[in-house]
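job 3f2a | input accepted
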Amino acid sequence: MICEKCASEIEMITCKRCNKDLLPLGDYCYFCGGYLKEKNDEEEEPVDLSTRILCSDGTCIGVVENGVCKLCGKPYVPEE
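job 3f2a | predicted structure (80 res):
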């Protein structure tokens, strides 16, 4: 497919679920909703939600990692 703006070639991908050609615009097929990327078991370990520590700031929804909130950057202050 040719880009209408820059006239360069756009690489198309084929959905493995519905076999339609589509633009690589995300992780899911916009025709059938199938996941486009191959799943690799070694890619990520499952997250244990029971061991996570939530940010001590009452308005932040972040998770504490290495003593600091990953979202807002505030240091963790344990409840007393």
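job 3f2a | The two ends are 61 Å apart (CA to CA).
job 3f2a | closed
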